[in-house]
Amino acid sequence: MRSIISSFRILRPNYEVSQEVGLQWISRAHAYAKYLDSSSFVNKKTIFDLNILMENITNRFACKPDKIANRGTFIADYLHNNWEEMQFFDLKKNTAGSQLQERMSFFSEVTNQVFNKFYSDIDEAPQHIIHVTCTGYVSPSAAQLIVANKNWGKSTKVTHAYHMGCYAAFPALRIAQGFLLQDKQLLNSNEKSSQNRVDIVHTELSTLHFNPSLQDPSQFVVQSLFGDGLIYYSLYDKNSFLYSNCLKGLEIIVNHEEIISNSSDAMSWEIGSNSFQMTLSGKVPSMIAENIENFIGKMFSFTDVSFEEVKNNCIFAIHPGGPKIIQHIKDILSLSNESVQLSESILKMYGNMSSATLPHVWDSILNSDIEKGALVVSLAFGPGLTISGSIMRIV
Amino acid sequence: MRSIISSFRILRPNYEVSQEVGLQWISRAHAYAKYLDSSSFVNKKTIFDLNILMENITNRFACKPDKIANRGTFIADYLHNNWEEMQFFDLKKNTAGSQLQERMSFFSEVTNQVFNKFYSDIDEAPQHIIHVTCTGYVSPSAAQLIVANKNWGKSTKVTHAYHMGCYAAFPALRIAQGFLLQDKQLLNSNEKSSQNRVDIVHTELSTLHFNPSLQDPSQFVVQSLFGDGLIYYSLYDKNSFLYSNCLKGLEIIVNHEEIISNSSDAMSWEIGSNSFQMTLSGKVPSMIAENIENFIGKMFSFTDVSFEEVKNNCIFAIHPGGPKIIQHIKDILSLSNESVQLSESILKMYGNMSSATLPHVWDSILNSDIEKGALVVSLAFGPGLTISGSIMRIV
């Protein structure tokens, strides 16, 4: 049984920050944190010198406005430089920013609002809600609370797909596909004709984990990439999709995942005392490069066509870990500019929204004039190193 | 297609602490934390007075040795009272104990060792490993690392089932059941006859989150209940089970879950800056009591027998949130002492091991002389409030 994703809903965070403003904020925050952390040094630099130093580092390592024009955030702190008035980044108190507990409370508050908005006009209970995030863990979660508040507790099961990084849409989809199969058996055996639907909701508050005390160059890369992202979609079985009033959807043909051996130190996502923290090695692009062709070959081995046959008619949804990843994969696989254009524009408009990014690309594919029947090849990467991907068809 | 769990493997933590020693440690830690936190008060109590006060509170609220005789831990701190020599509880530095980052590093280190031991003699790759925990989140996880180290990255997918509290074995099982169904389709279509197996591994390091600065009476309940628990098992489809050399297994007939409305404030599991933190209201037992009969009725509506018909021949695996829960459910459902005895003995031997507890009970059922054909009714509870459960049959 093949299943189909559709019914995308996107919410934008409260604030949009242009990359120019964002990069200036990053360099100022690092300069001020460095200034405060070095307050007892004899050869202490002035804040003026540190601002220039950090601007240079930012210019060298951060993602530029030609690739990311804008990022969304729920945190008003990023709109100004009055450190002492900030909710999370009153750096005089702590150059790492607020403690994790405060950030998690904020995550809880915001995601509850987000779920309330997503579900405000949805009256039919899904069989399942899968809540996907790697940026905040609170239980009862926003997914559990919406189910309780809607009185859906007897019909809707909540599953947390947490801490699986940027590629988490794929484990969420394979979990959802399994639920549909089980529920279909159950629905058949009970001879009901009700809708077979699993909702997937991503709430990534990536900008919540900024930490100005982390000053390794790789942190300037990470901190200039991520934006908040919130997206809802549903997975239907074929029958339910026909009755869903959706005009278009993405039928999942293959959902595949691999872990590359000897790559475990290339990327990590850990919980610190103040923020969740990413480490990222410069080896990642080459490791992906070495493995991507085999990975795609493996995915296509589950279909009745070869990649080379259909490549020129495929659309590529590539998770933009950074802007270089898309370019890199485009070069290795000899892809056309057009085939990766929607991945690039989502990155440009919103930044890397962690696991919410690819669903944004999928939504933009369904909203484009790309015709039904076209294949969509999706790819994402995360700690492990994990390569995850899918082949879908627009239906 | 019904699936079967079997191949249980249990690892015990490095240290076993008798409840007498454990309770004394808790009261001493609280007394010393209180002493340090009140150091500027005028009417400061002596450490001697505080020891007596905290012993009284512990005696009043904590779980006694007649219900929990012993709990396991990986933390040597619990074996002595020399605060300044402790790894996590050098309370003079911080009465909350170590920062979360140190605890998460320890979690990572220990769970890697645990996975290495579980998998030391397993040569056949499963299709999936589902890693279940609510006590530590690190990526690459121990599950991802074992897959990378075993060179299983092209055949084994890793899924994290994190932050779902004590009932997480049930979402893990429904995820696993869905994977088996999907893989069966794939195996059929590829006409292979290989094993269809999903491994589920729980690593709960509950004792890692002790926090002596939290002194609400409910914290004395929580802190006297939890022990570390580590368990591995596999889910097979029927054919694979026959070829697995397992003598006995539990066939899953129903796997059900509900969220009770208006109960979201009764229990929570949150991430603090020093430790993960549980809140627990006194309303929980009565909320469970009000809903448990309907819940079991709903589970049995998916079978062809009624609960009342078969009740006297069922074994009950009840997650012992606390010892009162088992007693409470026994009373409401008029169950025999024998039918809940294995749940009580797991609690007594090891304490509440969060999501790892029920799998320990299942293992003890398979190791008992209870005959094949008997039904096993399992129940667990967590934030939401979520009630989760299953009906299985010994095969």
Automatic annotation (TrEMBL), chains A, B:
Q: Which GO terms describe its biological process?
A: polyketide biosynthetic process
Describe the location of the Chalcone/stilbene synthase C-terminal domain by residue ranges.
Answer: 252-394
Q: Which keywords describe this protein according to UniProt?
A: Transferase
Any Pfam family hit: Chal_sti_synt_C
What the entry lists under Gene3D superfamilies is as follows: 3.40.47.10
GO terms of molecular function: acyltransferase activity, transferring groups other than amino-acyl groups
Is Signal among this UniProt entry's keywords? no
Instruction: Tell me if Transferase is a UniProt keyword of this record.
Output: yes
Q: Describe the family membership recorded for this protein in Swiss-Prot or TrEMBL.
A: Belongs to the thiolase-like superfamily. Chalcone/stilbene synthases family.
The name under which this protein is listed is Chalcone/stilbene synthase C-terminal domain-containing protein
